[in-house]
Amino acid sequence: MSEHGLDKRQFGHRARLALSPACELKADAQAHAARTMWNLLHAWWQMMPKEKRTLASADAAIRQARKDIDFLAVLPAQAAQAVLKTYFQAWKNCWDGRSDAPNFKCRLRSVMSVDIPQGRDLNIVRVHRRWGMANIPKVGRVRFRWTKDLPVGKHSDQENRITGARLVKDALGWHIAFRVQILEARPGPHQGPEVGIDVGVTVPLALSDGSTKNHGEWLTKQEQSKLLRLEQRAAQRKQHRKPGTRTSRRLHHTYDQIAGLRAKAKRRALDWQHQTTTAIAQQYGTVVVEALTITNMVKSARGTVELPGRNVAQKSGLNRSITGEAWGRTVTMLTYKSAQYGGTLRKVAAPNTSRRCSTCGFITPGSRENQATFVCKNPDCGWSGNADHNAARNVLHLYRMGLALIPAAGRAVVSRAKRVKPAVAR
Predict the structure, then answer these.
(1) Looking at the DSSP assignment, which residues form a beta bridge with residue 176?
(2) pLDDT digit string (tens) for 311-335?
(3) Can you tell me the mean pLDDT for 161-182?
(4) Rounded to whole angstroms, what are the CA distances from 384 to 348, 359, 380, 392?
């Protein structure tokens, strides 16, 4: 942090790569080598005694493995070191209670990725308005989609630069995620108004000032019809496949088409979330949301054999709708974007915000007549209006009454005795 009102900010920027077939094969080979390196490290970890599970011993092991196993040599040495650091960091996160213990990575269900730790190796150049070029170690010079100004060339210095990147492959192809560090002015306190937000399925975001943030379907009618047709085709081909036999190339191709359409829908959802949360962070100084436990909200209603659930299909459809809206991701975006513009995000308790009248403050049974209508049954009130706006007003009222939840300093974990150094296994 600088003394002149400037802060260092780090963020990621993801761009689409335009790889030739030869370069794509090289990138695939590196990603498979990185996954194999992780699996070998995990096998080495389980085999070695606890006192020998050190960073230096693991580094010597992967150096020897790159010499003994030919296909591991396609992975650059710095990328192999990044796999090693990520693996040890995964164990530290497990010891601190932030995640589960690392495990082997499956070929089919693991994300294909390769790390480029040094930003200077990229040698990024902007070709023209839409495209830039970067150097990928052991792949070559490749083009990427230029959608955001990056600190390269004369705009790059010790404070504003690209510190590294990561190649990631999804259903839409290979992408490059840059790690960018910039020096920007520290934002002053946001002078905008306060706003409460109620999240929902029918109305994605309802604001306490009466406005809403809506979106349409993530896929067009033609794309939805194509997705349904592909899912039916995949189910038929899977039904005729004998158990224990390999999946045919036609079925793999159908799965790839389905994954491509779903990835396209997710990309459009992310774009809408980014644009909407940026607009909210720019306009409002204090954003108040409900502290929802989404994992409990999307639990299945199937029940057990002794106590079977009711309305299982309806609850399953609601769970899919809640998951598709990605409320947690929206709150995460609002958190860091509000801080970026000098605002704050606060959370309040969620119970009864949809059942309480925002005018009289009473909870009267039957006030929520349907999804969109709220009519207060209190004889002394009788207020009526939109149910989502009523809930958003209650959310803001809880904050103004001083009932905002205090964020914890960190995740509570069970303390464990430190028997050895951090670099050694416990």
Answers:
(1) 15, 167
(2) 677 778 887 888 888 888 999 999 9
(3) 91
(4) 24, 10, 13, 14
Does residue 342 contact residue 190 with C-beta atoms inside 8 Å? yes
Strand-by-strand arrangement of the 125-126 sheet: 112-116, 161-170, 173-185, 6-18, 140-145, 131-136, 125-126
DSSP code for 12:
E
**Residues 198-203, mean pLDDT to the nearest whole number:** 87
Can you give the pTM of this predicted structure? Answer: 0.80
CA–CA distance, 208 with 393 (Å, rounded to integer)? 5
Contact 133, 124 (CB under 8 A): yes
Give the Å distances, CA to CA, from 35 to 25, 42, 62, 164, 209. 15, 11, 13, 20, 50
For 361, residues 6+ apart whose C-beta sits below 8 A from its C-beta are none
Which of 267-271, 342-346, 347-351 shows the lowest mean pLDDT across its residues?
347-351
Residues 6+ apart with CB under 8 A from 17: 142, 143, 144, 145, 167, 173, 174, 175, 176
DSSP type of residue 187: P
Token code pair at residue 241: 């496949």
Burial readout 241-273 (b: 16 or more C-beta within 10 A, e: otherwise): eeeeeeeeeebeebbebbebbeebbbeebeebb
pLDDT bracket for residue 385 (50, 70, 90) = confident
Could you give the angle at the alpha carbon of 393 between the alpha carbons of 392 and 396, nearest 5°?
A: 90
3-state secondary structure of 176: strand
